[in-house]
């Protein structure tokens, strides 16, 4: 009976040590592994710090995340600019294009943020024409629709396209 209790206690200790969280042994890591860990930690911190508040993630694919911050501006009363953050955790330099753009059901011009280099992050705007929808201010915008395509800035090959994104403005 003592032997069974001793074996059960031993098994419990072994299982508990297997489930315990592992600590990272930095001394056994190569310089390349340390740099990779630092880069991954920076990217995670960027996600946590830049995307706090009323932000909404509109794309998360191919190691690229695009989020709207919830802020917007009017540009010369002709365009609405939605502020965005792009996190490029891929190995590609990424460009962003928009297609099938509409404001309140009207097809209009739309442009995306500038390209973002591999492993970097950037702030930018999605710009939409108010004039082409016969609108005079951003407050008149009720809904925005568009499709985002990601392409490799070095080869100009599109590698990801979203379904139609529909945003309801408040």
Keywords:
Immunoglobulin-like; 22% helix; 170 residues; alpha+beta; 2 helices
Describe the structure.
This protein has 170 residues and is an alpha+beta fold. It has a domain at 54-170: Immunoglobulin-like, CATH 2.60.40. 22% of the residues lie in helices and 41% in strands. The chain contains two helices and ten strands. It has a five-stranded antiparallel sheet. Strands 4, 5, 8, 9 and 10 form a five-stranded antiparallel sheet that branches. β4 and β5 form a beta hairpin. The chain is elongated, with a radius of gyration of 24 Å. It starts with a helix and ends with a strand. The relative contact order is 0.15. Residues 49-53 have low confidence and may be disordered.
Give a summary of the structure in a few sentences.
This protein has two helices and ten strands.
Set out the fold topology.
Elements: H1 2-19, H2 31-50, E1 56-61, E2 64-75, E3 79-88, E4 94-103, E5 106-107, E6 110-111, E7 121-129, E8 143-152, E9 158-161, E10 165-168
Antiparallel strand pairs: 1-2, 2-3, 3-7, 4-5, 4-8, 6-7, 8-9, 8-10
Q: Please, how many helices?
A: 2
Total strands: the figure is 10
The backbone outline, from C-alpha atoms, is elongated
Mean pLDDT: 84
Main-sheet strand order equals 1-2-3-7-6
Low-confidence stretches: 49-53
**Strand/helix succession:** HHEEEEEEEEEE
The CATH class label of the domain at 54-170 is: Mainly Beta
């Amino acid at each position: 009976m003592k032997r069974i209790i001793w074996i059960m206690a031993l098994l419990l200790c072994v299982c508990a040590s297997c489930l315990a969280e592992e600590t990272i042994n930095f001394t056994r890591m190569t310089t390349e592994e340390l740099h990779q860990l630092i880069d991954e930690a920076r990217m995670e911190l960027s996600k946590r710090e830049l995307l706090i508040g009323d932000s909404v993630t509109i794309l998360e694919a191919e190691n690229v995340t695009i989020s709207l911050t919830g802020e917007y501006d009017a540009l010369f009363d002709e365009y609405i600019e939605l502020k965005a953050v792009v996190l490029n955790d891929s190995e590609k330099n990424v460009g962003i294009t928009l297609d099938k753009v509409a404001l309140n059901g009207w097809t209009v011009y739309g442009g995306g943020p500038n390209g973002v280099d591999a492993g970097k992050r950037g702030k930018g705007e999605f710009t939409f024409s108010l004039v082409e929808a016969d609108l005079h201010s951003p407050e008149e915008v009720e809904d925005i629709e568009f499709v985002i395509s990601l392409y490799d800035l070095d080869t100009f090959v599109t590698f990801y396209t979203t379904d139609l994104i529909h945003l309801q403005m408040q």
